[in-house]
């Protein structure tokens, strides 16, 4: 994923008259710095980010006025996601709701942002109903071991109603074909500690 991150840096000072700028590989800090220097005439003019290639969270994190440091930091987040095998779609869902609390992102180390995102993961599914069931399986030890027989307590639960109740305290966010259950760290501390597999989080393929 980090290999596909590109930004178009433009000269804001001459934007009203003509379009001056260039595409640059955001993962190459030296080339990115050189592009900033070329486009802004050695820093004499203001810049803007006219276009961005990358996942939704990356585009939102960089933004239209993203500085050199902001772009480099967003790339470091992408690299951290890859090293931790954290799913980029889930991070997009998390950042969509969390960015106001973690803005500017440069205040936080990339590893801190990824850790917070992972801590806020509480399940996923193809629908809100499936996501609610995933949440219950994450919270209750042995809940996923039932064989869906007539003795399975899951068959007695109104999962649609449960999903609606969960949304009073958790965020359900759909990215692509997946609904993610996202809960703040503060709320998670008030909940009963998770007894299921502590290693479960949305891992990238």
List the helices and strands and how they pair.
Blueprint: E1 6-11, E2 21-25, H1 29-39, E3 47-53, H2 56-62, H3 68-83, H4 88-98, H5 110-119, E4 121-125, H6 128-139, H7 159-166, E5 171-175, E6 178-182, H8 185-190
Antiparallel strand pairs: 1-2, 1-3, 4-6, 5-6
Helix pairs in contact: 2-4, 3-5, 6-7
Report on the structure:
It is elongated, with a radius of gyration of 21 Å. β5 and β6 (178-182) form a beta hairpin. The protein has helices at residues 29-39, 56-62, 68-83, 88-98, 110-119, 128-139, 159-166, 185-190, and strands at residues 6-11, 21-25, 47-53, 121-125, 171-175, 178-182. α3 crosses α5 and α6 (128-139) packs across α7. The strands form 2 sheets. A 3-stranded antiparallel beta sheet has the order 2-1-3, with helices on one face. Strands 4-6-5 form a 3-stranded antiparallel beta sheet. With 205 residues, it is of the alpha+beta class.
Structure summarized in a few sentences:
By secondary structure, the chain is an alpha+beta fold. It has helices spanning 29-39, 56-62, 68-83, 88-98, 110-119, 128-139, 159-166, 185-190; strands at residues 6-11, 21-25, 47-53, 121-125, 171-175, 178-182. It is built from eight helices and six strands.
Strand order of the largest sheet: 2-1-3
Class from helix and strand fractions: alpha+beta
The stretches of 5 or more residues where confidence is low (pLDDT under 50) are 185-199
The number of helical runs is 8
Instruction: Report helical residue fraction.
Output: 25-40%
Separation, N- and C-terminal Cα atoms: 12 Å
Tertiary shape:
elongated
Residue share in β-strands: 15-25%
How confident overall, as mean pLDDT?
Answer: 87
Using only CA atoms, what is the Rg?
Answer: 21 Å
């Amino acid at each position: 994923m980090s290999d596909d991150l590109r930004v178009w840096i433009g000269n804001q000072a001459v934007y009203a008259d003509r379009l001056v700028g260039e595409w640059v590989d955001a993962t190459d800090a030296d080339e990115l710095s050189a592009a900033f220097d070329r486009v802004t005439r050695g820093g004499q003019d203001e810049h803007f980010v006219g276009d961005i290639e990358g996942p939704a969270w990356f585009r939102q994190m960089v933004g239209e006025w993203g500085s050199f440091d902001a772009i480099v930091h967003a790339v470091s987040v992408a690299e951290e996601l890859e090293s931790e095998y954290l799913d980029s779609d889930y991070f997009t869902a998390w950042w969509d709701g969390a960015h106001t609390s973690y803005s500017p992102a440069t205040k936080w180390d990339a590893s801190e942002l990824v850790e917070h995102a992972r801590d806020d993961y509480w399940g996923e599914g193809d629908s809100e109903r499936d996501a609610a069931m995933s949440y219950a399986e994450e919270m209750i030890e042995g809940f996923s071991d039932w064989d869906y027989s007539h003795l399975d307590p899951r068959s007695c639960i109104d999962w649609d109603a449960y999903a609606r109740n969960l949304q009073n305290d958790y965020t359900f966010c759909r990215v692509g074909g997946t609904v993610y259950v996202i809960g703040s760290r503060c709320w998670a501390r008030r909940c009963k500690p998770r007894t299921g597999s502590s290693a479960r989080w949305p891992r990238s393929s």
